[in-house]
Write a structure and sequence with these properties.
By secondary structure, the chain is an alpha/beta fold. The chain has 13 helices and ten strands. Strands 1, 2, 3, 4, 5, 6, 7, 8, 9 and 10 form a ten-stranded mixed β-sheet that branches. Helix 6 packs across helix 7.
């Protein structure tokens, strides 16, 4: 009996090894946060058991630049969890496969590729907020901002941080949001004044809020979900959606045209548009593509979705290089060291 038990265990192990050997590795480029990678991998591999997810992860700016640099020799099979404005650039360059995932008709219209041929699908939306340390501000007699212009108060000189727009998708959505909502001339004028109060432009979308939460800065410009998370942990911060509206972006996924595993990649794309996938997205984001799927966290700003400006994702993609070049010319001197 003992021998039979050992034999059965050996056969199970052999079967597991054989199953693992038969799985196909899919290289997926992503800007998801590190703590999101394991749940996404588990969800994909459960839905598509013949696939093995291999992540290539970095910030939005780095992944976007890397993917475009590899355009003559693409190495990814899919892109998942990257800004839609980046995927629009890839689409324009002909780097994405034309594929409409099953079930996308159930998704909110704003999360579907509006141009033919269909090549990318939105997952979740995120927006810019101000993480404002009320304890530090109170000690310095600084009033809580209600509008973006309030961040140019001289009392905030050296007390504000925000993400670098070339490194961080969060930083770029804020810059693009100001230029769209204020108009380009007024948007650059606002950023000139804001620059006087900036301590540093950080190469992370979450770091500014973390620094504000710790009291290292008074104001950190960051994402809605990071603000809610830091406040829930007990940080003395107000999570503010400015009354004049805020920029936003959505994460999206797509199959890479040059992938050698098109059938398998398309199965993953089908999963990406499913309710099950959106339930995973909702663990990290309050606004997701699938109607009725929501998981609003504690301390999430009540007026967040109403504060989202009318955003032109195609404009963000088409003007990205021009905007970043001008931004760098004006403000790069305060970029944090990488």
């Amino acid at each position: 009996m003992k021998f039979l038990g050992i034999l059965a265990a050996a056969l199970m192990l052999a079967g597991s090894a054989a199953e693992a050997a038969e799985r196909t590795k899919l290289t997926i480029y992503t800007a998801l946060e590190n703590d999101q990678l394991a749940p996404f991998k588990a969800g994909i591999e459960k839905a598509v058991p013949e696939a093995e997810v291999v992540w290539v992860r970095d910030s939005t700016g780095v992944i976007t630049a890397r993917f475009l640099a590899e355009k003559d020799n693409p190495r990814a099979d899919l892109v998942i969890g990257l800004a839609a404005s980046s995927l629009l650039m890839f689409e324009k360059a002909g780097l994405l496969a034309a594929y409409t995932p099953k079930g996308i008709e159930a998704l909110k219209p704003a999360f579907r590729d509006p141009t033919a041929p269909y090549s990318w699908t939105g997952m979740d939306a995120y927006l810019g907020v101000v993480c404002f340390n009320t304890a530090e501000a109170g000690r310095d007699g600084i009033r809580t901002p209600a509008r973006w212009a309030d961040l140019t108060d001289p009392a905030l000189k050296g007390k504000v941080v925000m993400p670098h727009p070339a490194s961080s998708g969060t930083g770029y959505l804020m810059v693009a949001g100001w230029l769209q909502s204020m108009g380009e001339e007024a948007g650059w004028a606002f950023m000139d004044k804001l620059h006087e109060n900036i301590a540093a432009y950080l190469h992370s979308g979450s770091a500014p809020c973390v620094q504000a939460a710790r009291g290292e800065r008074v104001a950190g410009l960051a994402l809605d979900m990071r603000g809610a998370s830091e406040k829930t942990k007990g940080a003395p911060i107000a999570v503010i959606v400015p009354a004049d509206g805020t920029g936003w972006e959505e994460e999206a996924f797509a199959v890479v045209a040059a992938s050698k595993h098109q059938d398998l990649a398309r199965k993953v794309a089908d999963w990406g548009a499913s309710r099950a996938a959106n339930e995973i997205y909702a663990k990290s984001y309050a606004i997701v593509a699938y109607p009725g799927v929501a998981s609003t966290p504690p301390n999430y700003p009540a007026n967040a979705e109403a504060g989202m400006i009318k955003n032109d994702l195609a404009w963000m993609a088409e003007n990205r290089e021009r905007i970043l070049a001008e931004w760098s010319r004006r403000y790069e001197a305060k970029a944090a060291k990488k």
